[in-house]
C-alpha cells in the first residue's frame, strides 16, 4: 500500500466524516446498489461512506475492509448503532484480499489514489464478486482543479500536495485510469462518468462551504509537507489566505472534477 498523506489523527478522522456528508449529493445519485444484498466496501476507513451506504440501503449487509487499525477503531465507534449482522469490519490489505465469502456488489471511494498497486485492488475485488456482481468506484482527478483569482501560494502548495502523494506511492489523477484498470481485471459493461463542482458567486454559500472544506483537505497533509521541506509555515498560511480571497472575489471560480466508474463481472 502507499502512505496515506492525510494521516490518522482525530482531526483527519473527523474530516473524513465531514467529507462524506458534503460530497454525498455529488457521489451517490449515479450509484445504484438496490437489491445487492452482500456488498464489499474496500478501504472503509472510519466508516464515513459506510454510514451513507447503510442509510441508503438499510437491507444491505456490508463487509468493510480496512488496513489501518486506528481507522477501524474509529469506525467501530461511528458504526456502533448498526448490528454486527449488518456490517462487518475486517482488517486486510485490499491489494491481497483473502475473504471467505463472495459478494454481489462492491464499493470503492477515495481509496485507489493512495494505493501503490491499484490494479491488485481491482483484481482482488473481481475475484471476490459473484458473476453479475457490480463494482462502483469514485476517484480523484486532481489536475482538473481550477480556480480564480490565481493565488501563487495556493498553486505552490497544491503542487507540493500532489507531488507528496506521488512520492508516497499514490496517484492524484487515478480517476482517469479506472476504465483501463477495470478492463484489465476482466470486468465488462464498463461505464465512466465525470462528476464534480463548478462554483462561483452565483452560489456564494456553497462556494464558501467548499473553500472552507478545501482548506481542511489541504491542511491535512501540512505536517508531512513541512517535515519534508516541500512547504513552510508561511506558505501554508498564505495558501489559506488565497482561498479566503477566492470567496470574496466577485469573479471567483472553484472547479474540480472527480471520475466515477461502474462495471460488471461476467
What can you see in these coordinates?
- By secondary structure, the chain is an alpha/beta fold.
- The protein has one domain: 3-Layer(aba) Sandwich (Rossmann fold).
- It contains 9 helices and 8 strands.
- Strands 1, 2, 3, 4, 5, 6, 7 and 8 form an 8-stranded mixed beta sheet that branches.
- α4 packs across α6.
- The radius of gyration is 19 Å and the shape is globular.
- 39% of the residues are buried.
- The model has no long low-confidence stretch (mean pLDDT 92).
Give descriptors for this structure:
266 residues; alpha/beta; Rossmann fold; 8-stranded mixed sheet; 8 strands; methyltransferase; Methylase involved in ubiquinone/menaquinone biosynthesis; Methyltransf_25
Secondary structure elements and their pairing?
Blueprint lengths: L9 H18 L10 E5 L5 H9 L4 E6 L2 H10 L8 E5 L11 E7 L8 H10 L1 E12 L5 E3 L3 H16 L10 H8 L2 E13 L3 H16 L2 H6 L5 H16 L4 E12 L2
Parallel strand pairs: 1-2, 1-4, 2-3, 4-5
Antiparallel strand pairs: 5-8, 6-8, 7-8
Helix pairs in contact: 1-7, 4-6, 5-9, 7-9
